[in-house]
Specification:
The protein is of the alpha+beta class. Helix content is 36%, strand content 17%. The chain has three domains: 74 residues, no CATH class; 57 residues, no CATH class; 262 residues, no CATH class. The protein contains 13 helices and twelve strands. Helix 4 runs antiparallel to helix 9. This is Replication initiator protein RepSA.
Amino acid sequence: MTATLAALDPTTLADTLRVAGSPGFDRWQDQIRRTGGCADPIHLTGWTLAKDKTTGETLHRYSTASEPGGRLRIACGNRRASRCPSCAWTYAGDTYHLIRAGLAGDDRHDIPTTVREHPRVFATFTAPSFGPVHNRPDSGCCRCGAHHAADDPALGAALDPSTYDYVGTVLFNNHAGDLWRRFANRLRREIAARAGLTQRELADRLRLSYGKVAEFQKRGAIHFHAVVRLDGPDGPDSPPPSWATTGLLADSIRAAAHHPYSSVAVPAVDDEPRRVLRWGRQLDIRPIRAFGGGSEITEQAVAAYVAKYATKAAESTGTLDRRIVELADLDRNGVPDHARRLIEACKALDPLYPERRLWAWAHMLGFRGHFSSKSRRYSTTLTTLRQVRADFRAAQEREALGLDDIEPDTVLVLADWRYAGHGHTPGESALAASIARELQLNRETAREALASLDDGGW
């Protein structure tokens, strides 16, 4: 902590000492620990009252009047690691459990472990080429003649900006969700064709399930990582027919991804020609096994990979992690040239394709879809996982208050909560970051210990 304080500027250091020396510091610190070290907590004011419905007896009373600054701080819940690493860690953990439950089963969410026996693959869908960029090939050097370091900011930037297709990149990003929907529909047709069935007959014998996450490549083009699984007609509870093999699934994915139906036509407007957007030629499909081997990858490795990218967005390419109001924002924030050109393309195209809202999504380089999504029967839901956590915390709170022996249905809860702001002062921010680092270290230590006992986990 001493080293951390020494690195602070005088203003932040003075505020840190003020917060640490305030009468309510211990309670403030407890609030921040409960948020997981949230970088931008929500502030609430208000009260809650619990009464026995039958007797009218007051069982518990709470008011923020006794809290530091008269406020209760709760986690912001932002999924972006660039905004709040602590809340993003929680989101990534939920995503890990959601994906892994669809691979290994989870009795708590009525997903049988027999799902491990279903055909499952991990597929990566890439964008096509929009022009050569600086890269780090497996052998040799970049086409520019340099050997780039892994953290070289030039990686992903166009070798020749004057010929690079920035318009094509942002249009592809903008239509990526449409491309996925068309691919998923075509995939069912490819599976049915290989089984000698109509689509209606296929629905009576097999269900297609998936969970996917989007990732921005350094060049600013989106691509998808997807877990694709074949189930019986009732979902994960039922086995798929014997002819539904991993090989059949992989072949069907290849055929569907490159089929003309899995493309999107963008009409010509003014000087912009008609374009047909398609997936890139690079398509990686690997079987998933419980323990893996060779080209196969494990369930926990896939879940961890998906969870990692669920908390990232286009800011990894150098753009901003918030809506862009004006192009001057790019100068104020030092946005690199390649990302700037993509954002400027969104601005120029916005009046030509108003229904695509390209300027509104310029900070995402045109992409407007969900970063992580799943089919209805793939697994549990993030909402369910959050509710489980909330119920657990509520049970802990009832036990701490001595109310755990009282039936919840016999308790009347009255409450009045109001939004009172968000965030930290500079000193609070430094202290919260220190708490977050401590909690993260504890979590990583616990996870390593768990991994030594079983097959890993989040």
